[in-house]
């Protein structure tokens, strides 16, 4: 009878988890990841910074600035709203990734990767050039 009860509890948990009704704590990935995401922390295990950097599709080596990787953690004290700690990782040196493998992420941490300066310029041009071309066409059509 106890075995059937435990099986039912497990089945109920599985269904709640699949339907997204099981409360989970998350880590957030932003910036130059291939996919910005909310990553649920695993039950009873740890999620390292390296797991976040290389899981979920990883980060874009074409557009990301590997020297500008940050972990942002808000203060747990309610009276310190807006206070946070930022850790900086320069992953241009592969040896620095050993630190990423040991850094444990906590609930509500934000992992942010800055774009490369050339990416910033490229995106600015992508937004500017169509409006410039349209202005020229409007002037020509008159």
Give a quick set of tags describing it.
single chain; 142 residues; alpha+beta; 4 helices; 5 strands; extended
Distance between the termini: 84 Å
> Order of SSEs, N→C?
HEEHEEHEH
Mean of residue pLDDT values: 83
**Largest pleated sheet:** 5 strands, mixed
Oligomer state equals: single chain
Shape: extended
Low-confidence stretches: none
Strand content: 15-25%
**Spatial sequence of strands, sheet with the most strands:** 2-1-5-3-4
Strand tally, please?
5
Estimated structural class: alpha+beta
Radius of gyration: 22 Å
Number of helices: 4
Helix content: 25-40%
Description of the structure:
- This protein is 38% helix and 23% strand.
- The chain is α+β, with helices and mostly antiparallel strands.
- It has a five-stranded mixed beta sheet.
- A hairpin with a 5-residue loop joins strand 1 and strand 2.
- It starts with a helix and ends with a helix.
SSE order and pairing:
Elements (H helix, E strand, L loop, with lengths): L1 H17 L7 E6 L5 E4 L8 H6 L9 E11 L9 E6 L7 H6 L7 E6 L1 H25 L1
Parallel strand pairs: 1-5
Antiparallel strand pairs: 1-2, 3-4, 3-5
Summarize the structure.
This protein is an alpha+beta fold. It is built from four helices and five strands; from the N terminus they run αββαββαβα.
């Amino acid at each position: 009878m106890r075995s059937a009860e435990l099986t039912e509890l497990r089945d109920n948990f599985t269904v709640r988890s699949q339907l997204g009704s099981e409360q989970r704590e998350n880590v957030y990935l932003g910036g130059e990841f291939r996919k910005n995401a909310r990553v649920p922390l695993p039950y009873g295990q740890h999620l390292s910074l390296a797991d976040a950097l290389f899981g979920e599709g990883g980060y874009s080596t074409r557009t990301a600035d590997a020297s500008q990787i940050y972990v942002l953690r808000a203060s747990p004290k309610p009276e310190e709203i807006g206070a946070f700690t930022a850790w900086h990782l320069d992953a241009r040196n592969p040896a620095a990734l050993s630190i990423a493998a040991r850094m444990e992420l906590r609930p509500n941490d934000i992992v942010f990767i800055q774009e490369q300066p050339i990416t910033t310029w490229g995106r600015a041009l992508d937004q500017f050039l169509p409006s410039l071309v349209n202005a020229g066409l409007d002037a020509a059509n008159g």
